[in-house]
Please model this.
Amino acid sequence: MNFIKKYASYAFLSLSVFPLSVFADWELNLPRGVTPFSQEIYDLHMYVLWIMCAIGLVVFGAMFYSILVHRKSRGAKAANWHHSTKVEIVWTVIPFVILIAVAVPATRSLIMMEDVGDADMTIKVTGYQWKWHYDYIGTEVDFFSTIEEKSNTARRRGSNIDPFEVEHYLRDVDNYLVVPTNKKIRFLTTAGDVIHAWWVPALGWKRDAIPGFINESWAFIKEPGVYRGQCAELCGKDHGFMPIVVRAVPEGEYIAWVEEQTQAKALASDQRNSNNLLATTRTDQ
Amino acid sequence: MSEAAAHDDHHDVQSTGLMRWLTTTNHKDIGTLYLLFSLTMFFIGGSMAMVIRLELFQPGLQFVDPQFYNSMTTMHALIMIFGAVMPAWTGFANWMIPMMIGAPDMALPRLNNWSFWILPFAFLMLLSTLFMPGGAPAGGWTMYPPLVLQTGDAFPYLIFAIHFMGASSIAGAINIIATVFNMRAPGMTLMKLPLFVWTWIITAFLLIASIPVLAGAVTMLLTDKFFGTAFFSAAGGGDPVMFQHIFWFFGHPEVYILILPAFGIVSAIIPTFARKPLFGYSSMVYATGAIAFLSFIVWAHHMFTVGMPLAGELFFMYTTVLIAVPTGVKIFNWVATMWRGSMTFETPMLFALAFVVLFTIGGFSGLMLGVTPVDFQYHDTYFVVAHFHYVLVTGAVFALMAGAYFWLPKWTGHMYNETLGKWHFWLSTISVNVLFFPQHFLGLAGMPRRIPDYAVQFSDFNMVSSIGGFVYGASQILFVVVVVKCVRGGEKATDEVWEGAQGLEWTLPSPPPFHSFTEAPDPSSITGGNR
Amino acid sequence: MSNAELKRANRKTAIKLVLATTTMFFFGYALIPLYDVFCEVTGLNGKTGRLSSQEVSQMSPDESRLVDVEFVASVGADLPWEFYPLVAKISVVPGAETQVDFMVVNNAQYAVTGNAVPSVAPNEAAKYFSKTECFCFTKQSLKAGESRKMPVRFVVDPDIPRGVSLLTLGYTFFEALDTAGLHPTEHTYIN
Model:
C-alpha cells in the first residue's frame, strides 16, 4: 500500500504546482534532439502541428458558432440550401494548397535523411530477442548490449521493487554504445531472428532491423551526452525490455575508448585460446 | 414480388425460439443478430483493453506477464476490428438498407444467414486460443513474420479464424451489392440513394477487393509455418517485408471499411437534427469514392521505417496527405449542413457532433503521421495509438452509437430514455478524451506502443489515461441499460420518430413489419439523396 | 422485375462478385512475383544480381574511378557460428571482378548447416552489384568445430551512378531450413 500513499502525495503535489509541472515532469512534446536531422524534424513537427491547430480553430470555430446560434431553442429557422459549387471548389483547393506547403519542407527533410554518403564511420546494429549487438566496422570492437541488471530484476512480476527507486528504470544497459560527437556516423541495422526497430528519440529517427536485410541511416551528434531509447517494433515477450543507450563523447575520448576495448578484447581472446588449448590437450590425453 | 418474398420466409415465421434465430433469413432478424454479436464482442474486446490499462496504470509489472500482455493487445485489436466494428456495420446494413431503398428483404437471404452464423464459430475458435499451450496469438494483429511464426499451438486457429471472418464479411458484401443493384424501388436512382447506402456500397467493394488479399497473405504464413514454403523467411530466400506490403495492401482499405459507413450514418443524422438537407450530396459521394480509390495506393505509409527508396517514400507521402482533401470536403460539408439550420441536440446528434470534432482530431494526427520524415519519430509510438483510437473509437464507435440511438425507436417501436442516453454520451465523450488525448503526449515523449511496462517518466500520463479508460469502459454498461429498457418498453415511437427525418425508412411503421416493403413505395415519396 | 427475373439477376451479381473475390485472392499471390520484378527494377530491399564470368568479361572496366565496398557479416540467433569478413573494406574498379574472403567457424559440438542471405545497401545501388561466385549460392555444412574460408567474387557495374561512392555488402547466416521447411532447432523458438 506504500505506492498509494506515494501516489496520493504525488498527485497532490502535481495538482498544486500544476502549471509548473506541465513544463517540468510531464513531457508533452517531441524532443528537439541533438542532431541536425532531429532538430529539422522537430521544426517540421511544430510547423505541421500549428497548421493543424489553425485549421482546427477555423473548422471547430464555425461549427461551435453554428451550434450556439443556429439552434431551434433560440428560434432559428432552417434554411433550405444544400449546394454551392463555388464554395465546394474553394474548400477543395485550399486544403490542396496547404498540403503543398507541408509537402515541400517534408521532401527537403527526407532527402537530407536519405543522404548517407561521406560517413566518417560505420556501426552495424543487430537486433536479437532481446538484446542489441553493436559492431564497429573496421575495428575489433563488437559487443552485446542488454538491459541493466537492476531494471531487469525490478521489472519481474512480484519483485516488490519500486520502479521509482531504480535509476533509469528500463532505460539502462550493461554496455553503452559509445560514439564520437561531430562525426557523421552511419548505422547499418539488421536482425538475427525477428524484426526489431532501433530508436533513440534524440537522434530523430527509428529504423527497422530486419533479418536478412541491411538498412542504412545516419546521425551527426553535436552535443556530448547520454541518450536513451528502446526497441520500437514488437519482437516478442521482452520487447519492452531491450533498451538502447548511446553515449556521445568528444573524439579524443572516443579514440581512447576504442583502444581500451580493443586491448580488453585481445586479452579475452588470448585467454580463451589458451583455455581452448588446455581443453584440446585434455581431450587428447 | 410480395408473394414470392413471403414464400421465401414462410419457414421462418413458423419457427420459434432458438430455431427461429438459427434458421432465420429475415433481414431484420439477421441485423439484430449481427448487432447483438457485435455488442458482445465490444465488451469482450473492451475487457481486454481494461486488462491493458490496468497493467499500464503504473510502472512495473503488477498483474500480467509480458507474453499475456502481448496476447491482450493482439486479441483486443482482432476482436474490436473483426468482431465488433465490422459486424456492427453489417448489422446496420442488414436492418437499414432494404428499408432505405424500398425493398422487402436482402437479395440473398440464405447466404445472409450463413454469413452471420460463420462469425460465432470464428470467434469461438479465436477466443479458445487463450487456453492453449503457448497462449493466444501475441505477435500483434498485424501478424508480421517472423514473429508471428513463433506463435504456439494457437497459430493455425488464428489463421482459420481469420479465414472465417473474411468469408463472412465477403458474403455480407456480396449480399449488400446484389441488394442495392437489383432491388431498389422504381424511382430510387443511384444518385437518390441515402449516403449510408452509398458508403456501404463502396465499403462492400473495398471488402471484396481487400479481404481476399489478406486471406492470401495469411495462407502464405500457414504454408511457411507448416508446409516448407519460404514466402517470408529470409533464410529460405523470402522476404519478411513483403508480408508487410501485402498485409497493408489489405490493411489500409480495411481502415476505410471501418470508417466509411460511419460517414454515411453521420450524413443521415446531421441533416435530420439540423432540419436542413445535407450540403453537397454529390460531392459527398465523389469524396467517398476518391477516398476508397486512394486507399489502395497509400499502404506503405504504415511501414516507412522498413527502409524504402527515396522515390517510394515520397510517393507514399504525397498520396497519403492527398487523402486529406476528400476527407476535408466531407467535414466542411457537415459543418455547412449545420450552418443556418435549426438544430436540436438529442443523443444521436450529440454523438454525431462529437464524431465530427474528434474524428477530425484523429485526421489531423493522421496527416502528421503521413509526413514521412516526422513519421520516423512518431512510428510505433503511443502517438499512433492515440491517432487510430481517435479515428476508430471516437470515429467508428461513436458513429455506431449515434446510429444505434438514431434507429432504436424505429427498430423497437419505443423511444429510448433520453436522460440515460445523454448521460451515456457525456460520460463517454469526457472519459474517452481523458483516455486517449494524453497518449499523444506519451508518444511524442518517446513511449513505444505494445510494451507492458515503461520508464518512470511516462507514469503520470499513463495513470490519467488508465483512469479515463476505466470510466469509458464502465459508461458503456449504461448503453446496454438503455437498449434493454428500450426493447422492453417506453414511450411509443411515431413512424417518423424524428421531426426532421428524411428517407423511406421513416415511412414504415415503428417497428416495421416483418417484410419491409411488400409493395414498392411510391417514387414521389422518395426524398433522400440529391435534390 | 418479376420474381424469377430478380432471382436470376441476384444470382448473376453474386457469381460475378465471387469471381472478383477469387481473382483478388490470386492477386495476393501475384503480388510476390510482381514485387520481385519491382525490386529488381528499383533495387528495393537490396537484392543482388548474379552473373556468369563470361558476362563479366564483356564489361568494360571504368578505370577512371574507384568505388568503396564494405563487408559486414551477421549470424542468426539460432546459429552457434562465428562469421566475419577478412577485409572490412576495399576499393574496386567498376567492371573488374574482385574476390574477397569471409571466415566462418562452427563453435558447436555438432555439425550444422547454414544458409547465407546477401543484402546490399544503399538499396538503389543493389542492381549494380553482381556476384559471379558466392558461398551464398548453396547451403554450407560445417562439422563440429570446423572453420572455413569462403570466397565471394563480385563485380560492380560500370554504369553505377557517380553519386554512389560506397557500397555495403552484408551477409547473414541463418540455420538452413530442413526438408520440411522447419528449423531443426525449432523447439528453441517457442518461448
User: Anything to note?
Assistant: Residues 132 and 155 of chain A are 19 Å apart (CA to CA). DSSP finds six helices and ten strands in chain A. The two ends of chain A are 63 Å apart (CA to CA). Confidence is low (pLDDT under 50) at residues 9-24, 279-285 of chain A.
